[in-house]
Amino acid sequence: MTGVPDTASIVDLLTALVRVPSRGRIDARTPVLACIEAWLDAHDVRSRRIVSATGEPLALHVAIRGGAGAGPHYLLNATLDTAGFGDEATWTWPPLSAHIENGWLYGRGSADSKAAVAIFAHLAAAFSQRAAALEGTLGVLFDLDEHTGRFGGARAFFDAPDAPRPDGVLIGYPGIDRIMAGARGFLRAKLIVHGVAAHSGASSTRGINAAIRGATLAAALDGCTLPADPAFGRPAQLTVTGLRAGDGTYTSVPDRCELNLDCRLTPAFDADEAKRLIERIVRDQDVHIAPELATSIEWMPGWPAYRVPDSHPMTDALRRAARSELSADLPLAVAGPSNIGNYLASLGVPALCGFGVRCEGIHAADERIELASIVPVYRIYERALTMLLAPENGPS
Fold first, then answer.
1. Full-model pTM
2. Is the pLDDT of residue 76 over 80?
3. Is the pLDDT of residue 396 over 90?
4. For the structural domain made of 186-300, what CATH number should be given?
5. What topology is assigned to 7-183+305-393 in CATH?
6. pLDDT at 380
7. So where are the chain's domains?
8. What SS3 class is residue 107?
């Protein structure tokens, strides 16, 4: 059975977390970690820090083990670090104010993802009080190194030699109108386009302008057609994200141009397909160029696309819980940006990468969450976890 969440307590914890600056690569991690640790300690929830080889805190982990014997293992995941503030002059209220206005709480990280941290902490406290009735384990993982792009906390947890492999991970990224059951993957590359340097004022020797060659290649890449993948739910995408040439002077024809390329992958357009396409476009552009000036490609590590099956118990439980709470069938969708769910999929761990509070302004000025969405999100997660970990007590 689901309980009545202490909404005031969730908002109080969210307020406290938002008021602690925890920007990735900028702020110290210990203050926000101490904030959530103190709350968990006060509610008799045991936690452990996950640290780097140098002792730097990376994440906080809670494990609530049931007393009804072996069973499944599900993990709630949310991030404690945040994006930067941007131009603070564009905010209506200061980024750390946790100001409440017209039913919305404002502040950096309120949506991504301190509201999820506050909700998941309260779920941990509630389930720890009835652990004896659980079949299996409920884990909670709060990452302190997500917005750096390293996902350091989650990777340290799952890469440990004795790391568990949960039956499923539920990531608390915000959004109450759909369940994110997967995400596009990505492949990145640096392309080096070569030319022949010359003086820009010379008439007899014009060289070969690498900037023009690079711009032409960029246009060809931007205009290429990628295969559709309607079964997946999102198309593949290819984007030139950077183009640099020259040394800043006006008197030299540049002999080198660098292009940065980001490719979003689907199951029908995976990394191998993307490489073949990009290499073909590069060859077409180089066809009239001397071999020693051929464009070189440096491939960066990426992640494959993934999607959790609709029939997975975790997907089914969250959809059933949402239907019971919201009287509506939430659609399953695929996220455009990649996330730690892609990495988990590569380990064989299925992850739902988005269901949470209603929000606006993620990574922008006036990031905020709708307070009225806290209760239904809490209750949906509680119902779903009860179905997964205490099925005889779960709602039908």
1. 0.90
2. yes
3. no
4. 3.30.70.360
5. Aminopeptidase (3.40.630)
6. 98
7. 7-183+305-393, 186-300
8. coil
